Every structure is written in structure tokens, then in C-alpha cells.
TrEMBL record:
Residues 159-179 are annotated as: Disordered. This is Reelin domain-containing protein. It comes from the Eukaryota. It comes from Vitrella brassicaformis (strain CCMP3155).
Length: 206
């Protein structure tokens, strides 16, 4: 009868066991962090992404004052994944669907709604919510991807007081009257047969 000799099982060392949780955590972070970095907007009231490398990516912006005491912010530079712009006061309005506004103690902010690719150029409207003259500072950052972003040069403008004193954004443009008329007019393929029936009825009635 043979003798079976059993050796000691190869057990992981204490050092390997200590490293395992950290390694698992690192793998999970690398897998999930990019998808959760900016899916629903930048950090509240911040223009620091907290991820990726800051570099020049060719994005630019300009801000022009408007006659009603507001301003128009214009962006250019191609596609981007996320952005954050904070003003020292006032408010933003008529934002495109891919952007959202947030209220901060330091001033208004707008940022992206999701991390899908978006296209520049784009224009954003700012209004003088406080209806007072003076300086307004704008800070911004645009992320091309999770790994790269560009900090925009801060811009400060001096604005006039609001024109109506209401503190509300200007009303959006009303639809063209002629378009409204067309909206309520009958199509020809309905109007012409209807007119013919009315004429025939009147002829029979006579």
C-alpha cells in the first residue's frame, strides 16, 4: 500500500492579502470613474474638473455687452464633453437643452447635462439680474474628454443697469404673426372641397 504525502498548500502571504483590497479598489476606480466623472454636470459652483490634465485645446470665448444691460457669451473650438461657467452675479437664460443652470452663493453657474459629445460654436445669454451697473467676472472650463480639459481665461466686463428694473430675463422672441396665421388656416385640400360643397348647396337652395 502506497503512502500519500500531502504537502502544505500554497497560501497567499500576509503582504499579498494586504495588497488585494487596494488592487481591487484601484481596478474598480479605473473601470467606473470615467463614466461617473461628469455625467450630469460639473461640481457645484466650481470650474475645476477634479480629473484629467489641464492643457490648451483650442477652445475660446468672447463676451459682448448688449443694449439691455446684459451680455452674450460666445464659445468656439469644436466638440466637447463638458463645461462649467460661473459668473460673479446675474443669471443665464435661454440655455440649450444640453446645458443646465445652477444657483450658487457666489453667483450663477451653468454646466452640461450629460457627457455626450457636443458641438461648438455656441452662444449663451447673461442678464443683469440685480439691475445694477458695475463689473461682472466670468470664469470657465471646457473638458474635451475625461482626461483633458482647458481652463478659459477669465473675462471681466462692466455692464449698465438693466433697462426695465424687473430683475427678470428679457422675454424671448415672439413667433412671427404671419406664421401664426398660417398655423390657423385650413389646408388647400380641405378648404377647396369645402368651398365647392357650400356653393353647390347654395345653388340647390335657390
Amino acid at each position: 500500500m502506497g503512502i500519500i504525502v500531502k504537502g502544505k498548500p500554497d497560501l497567499p502571504s500576509a503582504r499579498a492579502l494586504a495588497r488585494a483590497p487596494r488592487q481591487v479598489a484601484l481596478v474598480l476606480q479605473l473601470l467606473f470613474l470615467p463614466s461617473f466623472a461628469y455625467p450630469s454636470g460639473a461640481p457645484l459652483c466650481s470650474t475645476r474638473p477634479g480629473h484629467g490634465t489641464r492643457t490648451s485645446l483650442g477652445y475660446s470665448w468672447t463676451i459682448e455687452k448688449t443694449s439691455d444691460g446684459g451680455a452674450t457669451i460666445s464659445f468656439s473650438g469644436g466638440t466637447y464633453a463638458g463645461m462649467s461657467v460661473v459668473a460673479s452675479r446675474g443669471g443665464f437664460y435661454d440655455l440649450p437643452a444640453e446645458l443646465q443652470e445652477r444657483s450658487c452663493d457666489s453667483g450663477p453657474q451653468f454646466t452640461h447635462e450629460d457627457s455626450a459629445a457636443k458641438t461648438l460654436p455656441m452662444g449663451i445669454k447673461w442678464f443683469n439680474k440685480e439691475d445694477r451697473a458695475g463689473s461682472v467676472r466670468f470664469d470657465g472650463v471646457i473638458a474635451e474628454s475625461y482626461s483633458r480639459y482647458q481652463t478659459l481665461n477669465p473675462i471681466t466686463i462692466n455692464v449698465d443697469a438693466g433697462t426695465d428694473g424687473s430683475g427678470d430675463p428679457p422675454p424671448t422672441a415672439s413667433p412671427d404673426d404671419s406664421a401664426a396665421d398660417h398655423r390657423f388656416s385650413l389646408p388647400l385640400f380641405v378648404a377647396l372641397p369645402t368651398a365647392a360643397l357650400i356653393t353647390s348647396y347654395m345653388a340647390v337652395a335657390e
